[in-house]
Amino acid sequence: MRNRFLTSLNTLFAVIAVIWLVPVSVAGQASLAKAAPAATVKKTWTPPRTPDGQPDLQGMWTNATITPFERPSGMTKPFLTEEEAAALEQQSAERHLNADSVAPKPGDVGNYNDFWFDAGTKVVSTRRTSLVVDPPDGRVPVTAAAEKRRDDNLTNVDSYELMSPWDRCITRGPGRMFPAGYNNAYKIIQTPGYVVILHEMIHEARIIPLDGRPHADKSVRLWTGDPRGRWEGNTLIVETTNFNDKGWIATNGASARIRGVPHSDALRLVERFTRVDADTINYEVTIEDPNVFTRPWTVAIPLMRDDGYQMFEYACHEGNKAIGHILGAARTAERIAADGAKKK
Fold first, then answer.
1. pTM (2 decimals)?
2. DSSP states of 204-267
3. Each residue of 241-262: pLDDT tens digit?
4. In which element (H, E) is residue 283 found?
5. Which H helix or E strand runs over 336?
């Protein structure tokens, strides 16, 4: 089911690139020079506390957004003006409204109708032009070797073991909090000594100890890594190490160029959760892996409180026909090619 969203997501990203690359008016350029992102306005706000004194992050939070993961090629400015953001959101709304009337391209099997999408309707509140905030160009610093591995990952149909860990219903991967086309909800629960984050996608539950214990021995390697949390003021910092070398940094189509990029067992994540008002958590994650990236890079995504959101069970393997069909079709294509070669 995951792959059926890629065509529509790619269409949306193309629309975003076109809108942002259209030159703005002189008035718009002037307002851009003066405009400060809304999130940079400093406010005095004291977060509530849990019974054991932790800053309270509990609740249901979502991060669906139409802001692209990376800054579109050819774009140089880091922020949109209010007018540009409004135009982009209007364009996205019209695309969503008319999506079901667009005929599939030749050879395209089609897609679910847009009713089943939950990819958001707004750009992020900071009005940034990408979720990647460092490096300053908004682009992930992937090595050429890792890009080649990505291309191999996305086209390999030799074995299920080489396919996406998301398609295999194992994990969304280290980028589990990157927005996707649907299921962008996270329930945070706090107990004395622990923070638990329940992810709607693949129903992963991260149990993060806060008691200062060391990471597991380096010989212990996990799909989702070994997290350790601590508080610095009102910010929860979660450091995760001990990953295995079998996964991808990102598995969903909304991650665009980064989908399929592998990670090594040198991967290290540092996440920061800071509640800045009653309805917003500023979330940042810095990703380090010297075997895959030329330098560390950072993604920032506001988490928005949504008490009315209902999280349902994510039943992944039940009815998962995709992998069997993909591999079966590949073997059929190979037999047809082999039979054709014999006849020559």
1. 0.84
2. -EEEEE-S-PPPPPTT--BSS-EEEEEEETTEEEEEEE-B-SS-BSB-SGGGGGGBT-B--TT-
3. 999 999 999 999 899 999 999 9
4. strand 280-288
5. helix 322-343
